[in-house]
Amino acid sequence: MSQISPRPGRGRPRLLPGKIAANPRDQILAAAAELFVSRGYAGTTTREIADGAGLRQASIYYHFGSKEEILAALLERSVQARVEQAGKIEAGMDSVAPDAALYALAVSDMSALVAMPYNIGMLYRLPDVIASPVYDRYGHLRGELVAGYGRVAERAAAERVPAGGEPGLGDLLVQMVEGVISLRREDRIGSTTVATIASACLRLCGIAEDAIEQARETALTALAQT
Amino acid sequence: MSQISPRPGRGRPRLLPGKIAANPRDQILAAAAELFVSRGYAGTTTREIADGAGLRQASIYYHFGSKEEILAALLERSVQARVEQAGKIEAGMDSVAPDAALYALAVSDMSALVAMPYNIGMLYRLPDVIASPVYDRYGHLRGELVAGYGRVAERAAAERVPAGGEPGLGDLLVQMVEGVISLRREDRIGSTTVATIASACLRLCGIAEDAIEQARETALTALAQT
DNA sequence: GTCTATATCGTGATAGAC
DNA sequence: GTCTATCACGATATAGAC
C-alpha cells in the first residue's frame, strides 16, 4: 500500500470532483459491490465500476491489479465479519442458556448480513464467483460458519429433534439465516424480520414457543452488553 | 418451429457426429443449462454452449434467435414443473390432513428441483438472470409458489406459531426447500436429504415429532398413488 | 493519482456457401 | 441444418502524458 500517497494536490485532478470524499479504493469497492450484486460478476464491466466510483476505467488499475482482485477484497469483507462474530458468540456460549446462545448467534449473524454494504453477503451464491480461483481462499470459512451453527444448535436442540440427518442442523439454520439476503434484495427487511427468522431457527430445533420468547429476551440483553 | 425439418440427410453434416442422438435444440439447452449454472449467465459464451452441444457457435442461431432466448426457455422449464405440482397438491389439500399436505408439497417440490437437469432451479437466484428482461415473464410465478406454500403452511400450523410475521411462513418454507439447490451443487444430496428437510418444514410450523412422523407416512402413500 | 489513448482479444450476431 | 468467415462492438489491461 506504499503506492497510496494521500497528499493533497497530488496526481492529475479527476474529471468528476464530486466524490472525492472517501478514499478511492473504497469508492471502487462500493461501486463494484453494488454492480456485482445486481448484475453478477461477469456481467459487470470495469467501465461501469469506474463510472460508479467517479473516475476513469483505467484509473482502477492503479488501486487494483485486476478485476478479480476487487472481487477478492469484497469476498474477504463479506465473510470476515460473520465468522468473527460467530466465533465470539460460540466462545461465550457456556455462560448463557444454549437456546439463548443460538438466538444470539442468529440475530448477530443476520445483523451482520443486513449491515453489509450493498448486500455483498450474496456474492457467495454466484456461480461465476464460486468458479473463480479467488473463491477458494475464502470458501472454507463459510464451512466453518456452518459447523459453528451446528455445534450451537445441537446444544440448543438437545435430544428434541432427531440428530445426524443429512443435511445437518447447521446447514438448515444457515440456510434460514441467509434468507435475509433474498429478502433484502427484494427490499423486504422490516422491523420484525430478524426476530421472526431467529425464532424460526429455535423452532427448527424443537424449542417450544414460550422458551423461544424467553431465549429471545436473554439473548437480546446479552447482545446489548457487547 | 416450422423451421425444424428433421428429415435425415438434410443439412450440412456436423463436424462432430458423436452427439446427434437427441434433437439439437435440447442439446443446446442442456449444454447451456450446465454452463449457466456453473459459470453464470453473463459468464457463459455462446461458443462454450456450442462446444457442449457439439456444433458450431453460429449454428446455435438456427435454433434460437439470441442467447437470451435460450435463457428464457430454461427459465420456463425450471418454474413450470414446480408450480404445476404445487397447484395439484393444494387443490387436493382438503382430502388429506393439513400437515400431510404440507409434507407432500415439500417432498414433491424438492423432488422436482432435484430432478431438474443440471440444477437449473438455481437460475432464479442469479442476479444477471433476475436483471434480464426475460425474467419478468416468469418471476411472478415464483411469487405464486410462495403464496401457495403460505396457504398450505398456515393450515398445517393452525394456531401453533405466531402468524402474520414478516417474512411469512411461505417465505421461510420455500427458503428451506430451495436449500436442496445449494446441497445439490455441492453433491450432498443423500437418501435422507429430502425427508430431513421436509420434516424440518413441519417442525417450523410447530408440529410435534410424532405428528411429523405420521404426516410423513400419510404423505408418502398419498404421493405414491399419484 | 488520474487522465487519454490504444493494444489485443473475445463477444454476440449475421451472411452466405454447402 | 450446419458449416466457414467475418463484422461490429465491447471487454480487460497497458503505456505514458500530466
Mind explaining what this structure looks like?
The structure is a homodimer of 226-residue chains. With 226 residues, chain A is mostly helical. Chain A folds into two domains: 7-65, Arc Repressor Mutant, subunit A, CATH 1.10.10; 72-224. Chain A contains eleven helices and no strands. The first copy, chain A, is elongated and about 65 Å long. Mean pLDDT of chain A is 92; it is low at 1-5. At the A-B interface, helix 1, helix 6, helix 8, helix 9 and helix 10 of A face helix 1, helix 6, helix 8, helix 9 and helix 10 of B. Chain A binds a DNA duplex (18 and 18 nucleotides) through residues 3-6, 10-15, 24, 45-47, 55-59, 61-63, 66-67.
Supply the key terms.
mainly alpha, Arc Repressor Mutant, subunit A, DNA-binding, homodimer, elongated, 226 residues
Instruction: Return residue spans of chain A where pLDDT drops below 50 for at least 5 consecutive residues.
Output: 1-5
Strand tally of chain A is: 0
Question: How large is the radius of gyration of chain A?
Answer: 20 Å
Mean residue pLDDT of chain A? 92
Output the helix-strand order of chain A: HHHHHHHHHHH
A few lines on this structure:
2 copies of one chain form a homodimer. Chain A has 11 helices and no strands.
Helices and strands, with pairings:
Two copies of one chain form a homodimer.
Chain A: H1 24-39, H2 46-53, H3 60-63, H4 67-91, H5 98-115, H6 127-131, H7 135-157, H8 169-177, H9 179-185, H10 193-204, H11 209-225
Chain A binds a DNA duplex (18 and 18 nucleotides) through residues 3-6, 10-15, 24, 45-47, 55-59, 61-63, 66-67.
